[in-house]
Write a structure and sequence with these properties.
The protein is 55% helix and 8% strand. The protein has 330 residues and is α+β, with helices and mostly antiparallel strands. α10 (212-237) crosses α14 and α12 crosses α13.
Length: 330
């Protein structure tokens, strides 16, 4: 029986895209530095982690199974997407665009070109046409994608001031993964519901959307969509260390203490938290109950899932690409 490509493994096998040779290597060793994984025959780099565009990346490559399952339940509701699309439609998109044009900075080749370059690199890694990017003046460390049919991406000055360029690249990849996977409309609806914007929904006869069971499904999917976007973030940077450090900074980053924060220690913390949840029934129950009130999964839980995915055959298949997928450049 073939191994499940989503199952963490001690070793994986990939085909060299330059010479076609099959290579087997340890995932633990590879994750120390993915750029150093080379073909045993031609010595070319086996993994595409140097910023090159991944023009063969498909949705199913990064969509987390729990995301796909929860989103399918939402999309199974008859006409939900069509009605919501008409309800929000171009009006909501225009308002969002105007608000960001009026109060933020539109990033492009002239405005914040370094950030713009990172954004284009992230878009190439995720293989998606990048929507407009805005820099907004806010102290919180955050980035978000908003809109309905025509999304936009925004990052806060708090995030840009705290994180390194490679960490920012990962965050941008995270947001663009939401765009690629078609998350934006449903996530916008979830935010409106969470903020109590029910009058808008009632105007379209959609008051049932706020009822308990459906609201729980919507919020649960919102959290699961973060796991997929985290995979996009990891693919964008091609570095598990950068990915973990980014989430460590989200958990408790400080410009004053940045040099004193340790990635390995944060991984140990994530493992301790996962073990505590698994072994303590009360903690597990309380975490489950409180989880329905959060927009995002716990940071250490997200790190735990990212590490597991980085040990799967599926992850290395994405980074390896198919033989002949780009010119021979060792």
């Amino acid at each position: 029986m073939a191994n499940n490509p989503e199952q963490p493994q001690e070793s994986v096998t990939v085909s060299c895209r330059f010479c076609g040779a099959m290579n087997r290597f340890s995932t633990e060793r590879a994750l120390l530095d993915l750029q150093k994984v080379i073909c045993g025959q031609c010595k070319g780099k086996l993994l595409r982690v140097s910023g090159e565009p991944l023009t063969d990346l498909r949705n199913e490559h990064i969509a987390h199974p729990w995301d796909r399952e929860a989103l399918a339940k939402l999309k199974a509701i008859p006409y939900l997407e069509q009605i919501l699309g008409k309800l929000l439609g171009s009006t909501f998109d225009k308002l969002q665009r105007f608000n960001h044009l009026g109060s933020g900075i539109r990033v492009d080749a002239r405005q914040a070109p370094r950030l713009h370059k990172l954004y284009l690199e992230a878009a190439g890694r995720i293989d998606v046409d990048p929507p407009p990017l805005f820099l907004v003046q806010r102290p919180d460390v955050n980035a978000y994608t908003t809109g309905a049919a025509q999304p936009l991406v925004a990052v806060t000055t708090g995030l840009v001031d705290l994180m390194s360029d490679r960490e920012i690249l990962g965050v941008l990849g995270h947001e663009l993964a939401h765009v690629k996977l078609g998350h934006v409309l449903m996530r916008t609806v979830a935010i409106l519901v969470a903020n109590g914007a029910l009058a808008l929904l009632n105007l379209a006869g959609l008051a049932q959307l706020a009822l308990g069971p459906l609201k729980m499904v919507l919020f649960k999917w919102y959290q699961m969509s973060e796991l997929s976007a985290d995979r996009g973030e990891l693919v964008a940077t091609g570095s598990l260390t950068t990915h973990i450090r980014t989430h460590m900074m989200l958990a408790g980053g400080s410009t004053k203490l940045a040099d004193e924060l340790d990635v390995a220690a944060f991984v140990d913390q994530a493992n301790d938290a996962e073990a505590m949840r698994d072994s303590e029934l009360f903690v597990s129950i309380m975490e489950m109950l409180s989880g329905s009130q959060r927009s995002h999964p716990l940071v250490v839980w997200r790190v735990h899932h990212a590490i597991n995915w980085a040990r799967t055959q599926a992850f290395y298949d994405v980074l390896a690409g198919a033989p002949g997928s780009r010119p021979l450049i060792p």
